[in-house]
Amino acid sequence: MEAGSSGFSAIAPLVFDGGNYQACAVKMAAYMEGSDLWEAVEHDYEVASLPDNPTMNQIKYHKERITRKTKAKSCLYAVVSPTIFTRIMRLGSAKEIWDFLKAKYE
After folding, report:
1. DSSP classification of residue 87
2. How many domains does the chain have?
3. Average pLDDT of each block of 10 consecutive residues along the chain (106 residues)?
C-alpha cells in the first residue's frame, strides 16, 4: 500500500483446512471486522426492499447492506480449502457458513 494512503488493505492471511479451528476463527473474525464485514456474519439480517421513490441515502444504505453480505460470503469462500469450499458453497449466507464451520470444526 502506498505511504500516506488512508485505506485499510489486508489480505486474507490463511487457508483453513479444518485444523486449528480456534486460531483460524480468531484470525478470520479479526480480518472481517477490520474489513467491516462482521455484521453480515454475526447477524443474518434481511435487506428490506427499497420504498417507492427512494432517496439517495436510502439507495446507498440498501446497496451497502447487500454488498456487505456478499463480500462477507466471498471472504469466507476465499479462506477455506477446496475440500471445505465444496461443503459450504451451497449455504445461503455468511452466517450459515460461519455457523457450519463452528459446528463442524470447533
Report:
1. H
2. 1
3. 47 80 93 92 89 94 93 94 96 96 96
